[in-house]
Amino acid sequence: MRIIEFPRYASFAQSFPNTIPYSESIGFIAKVDPDDVESIDFPFYVTAHEIGHQWWAHQIIGADVQGSTLMSETMSQYSALMVMEKEYGKPAMKKFLKYEMDDYLMGRAQENRKEVPLMMVENQQYIHYNKGSMIMYSLKDYIGEDSLNSAMRRYLKDKAYQEPPFTTAKDFYAQIKRSTPDSLKETLSDLFERIVVYDNKVRNVTVQKSNDQYKVTMLVNTSKTRSDSLGKQKMLWLMIG
Asked: How far is C-alpha 236 from the geometric centre of its chain's CA atoms?
């Protein structure tokens, strides 16, 4: 695997077979402070993402239709997340996923055409990168990493190096559904087929100490909102307790 530096006339990295051209502006001159709790090892993450493309976009080639970048960019994002988790541990993922959440919310607020579900993404970066990261990481927690890996492995075995007509997001989603228990099928639809946002807030916290134990009481608000492609929202439920 070769990494090739090019001057910062442009700022990106791109994956070719065994070769990743990498701008000096996002890698070679970056300084990551390991003592900064807010710092993210960006060169490590970008490199993991581009190596992920050796499978997702090089072996799996999606048809030029809606949802195509789910199998290339979203899956490379998820691959990079897992590499980062193995390297830095689960606690470090919280700050990266917060970064992804912030970028997704900003992207959907600035959308000037229409937001679509992840299954129908139209090369919208805030969806296939940022939202896709959160959805795949959540799915891993819901159904288990081994189950998700099995679905990805089946899909790769079935569709890698496919000749035209190329695969679509529906093929990938079918493998995901196969690994998802019936009790989570509605949640799966919320993640991939709909535009759903959860809003969770802790309004108040009290702590009582008794001997060597603590009793923690929280007042929380949690809501679930579904949006259409034009941004019209409908609150599905609100819980306070």
From this structure: 24
The rounded distance, in Å, linking the Cα atoms of 214 and 198 is 29
Residue 199 CB burial class (10 angstroms; 0-12, 13-18, ≥19): exposed
Residue type, position 50, single letter? E
Q: 132-143 and 90-109 are packed helices; what angle lies between their axes, rounded to 10 degrees?
A: 140
pTM of the model as a whole: 0.89
> Within 13 Å of residue 112, how many CA atoms lie on the same side as its CB?
0
Please name the residues in contact with 211: beta carbons below 8 A apart, sequence gap of 6 or more: none
pLDDT tens by residue, the chain, 241 residues: 999 999 999 999 999 999 999 999 888 888 888 777 677 888 899 999 999 999 999 999 999 999 999 999 999 999 999 999 999 888 888 888 999 999 999 999 999 999 999 999 999 999 999 999 999 999 999 999 999 999 999 999 999 999 999 999 999 999 999 999 999 999 999 999 999 999 888 989 999 998 889 999 999 989 999 999 888 888 876 777 6
E-strand spans in 98-212?
195-210
Give the position of tokens 């569709």. Answer: 159
Residue with tokens 């689960």: 90
